[in-house]
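TA notes, week 10

Several of you asked for a full example with nothing omitted. So below is the full record: structure tokens for the whole chain, then the designed sequence directly under it. When grading your own attempts, check the secondary structure regions first.
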């Protein structure tokens, strides 16, 4: 999925730990084969080669369904159908040039979550437009972290943390601790959390400058352009799939609409750093008390 995963866990023995690591990383590798848009042979890449309704695995369906829900809840600020645009902007960052405007318009025309149709009964996905591509990079890493924790729990590992770049998911606190110490750059002190997930998404790492404008790797589905605002969002949720997707969506929505969206959700909090200011959701204030 274009990033590195790491796992920290507590086990009764070295043998138990080794068995747990192997099982968790095997699950992550399995999900990479299903969900990675970096792989032409992944299920994610293959499913868009036809506009006919196609039966998909539980993992792909679950991720697409969560992505669809988030698209609807944010009026399209999050969108898993931007694969063609994602590849254009990856190339743009490599060559430090904006995508050709005509090519960008064509890619945007082959994007849009309303052109993707999921059928829960048949467990299928169908696309209105040929040549669409999926990119679940804004949500799949959190899902993979969740699934790794599921594997570890089945093996009796009660305390573990799975990290995928800026996405963290963790179970019970380490032995003798009240929780995992989770640092967020925008906050002066670490948070102490257990059985939760934290995802941080922003423009500070993957970006490039053209004509004085800094373009982020985070794309606005409405324009097809990389975000040009200096914004970083951290979301705290129960599950990684939620924290991951919501952090990306809030960056696109902007701070005011993003915080309003978060405060409508249950059990979710957010911290936004934008233009030198740090903004917190009402739910975060309750979390930190």
């Amino acid at each position: 999925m274009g990033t590195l995963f790491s796992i920290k866990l507590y086990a009764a023995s070295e043998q138990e730990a080794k068995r747990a690591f192997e099982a968790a990383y095997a699950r992550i590798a399995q999900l990479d084969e299903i969900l990675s848009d970096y792989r032409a042979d992944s299920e994610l890449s293959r499913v868009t080669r036809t506009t006919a309704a196609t039966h998909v695995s539980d993992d792909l369906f679950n991720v697409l369904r969560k992505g669809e829900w988030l698209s609807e809840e944010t009026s399209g600020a999050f969108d898993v159908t931007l694969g063609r645009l994602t590849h254009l902007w990856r190339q743009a960052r490599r060559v430090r040039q904006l995508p050709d405007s005509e090519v960008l318009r064509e890619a945007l025309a082959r994007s849009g979550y309303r052109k993707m149709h999921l059928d829960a009964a048949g467990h299928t996905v169908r696309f209105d437009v040929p040549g669409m591509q999926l990119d679940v990079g804004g949500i799949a890493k959190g899902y993979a972290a969740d699934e790794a924790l599921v594997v570890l729990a089945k093996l009796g590992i009660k305390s573990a943390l799975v990290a995928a770049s800026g996405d963290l998911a963790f179970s019970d606190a380490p032995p003798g601790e009240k929780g995992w110490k989770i640092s967020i750059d925008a906050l002066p002190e670490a948070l102490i959390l257990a059985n939760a997930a934290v995802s941080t998404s922003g423009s500070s790492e993957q970006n490039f400058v053209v004509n004085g404008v800094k373009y982020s790797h985070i794309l606005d589905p409405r324009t097809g352009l990389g975000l040009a605002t200096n914004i970083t969002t951290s979301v705290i949720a129960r599950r990684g799939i939620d924290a991951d997707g919501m952090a990306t969506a809030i960056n696109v929505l902007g701070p005011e609409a993003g915080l309003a969206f978060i405060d409508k959700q249950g059990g979710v909090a957010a911290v936004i750093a934008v233009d030198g200011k740090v903004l917190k959701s009402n739910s975060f204030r309750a979390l930190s008390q």
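DSSP finds nine helices and 14 strands in the chain. Use that as a sanity check on your answer.
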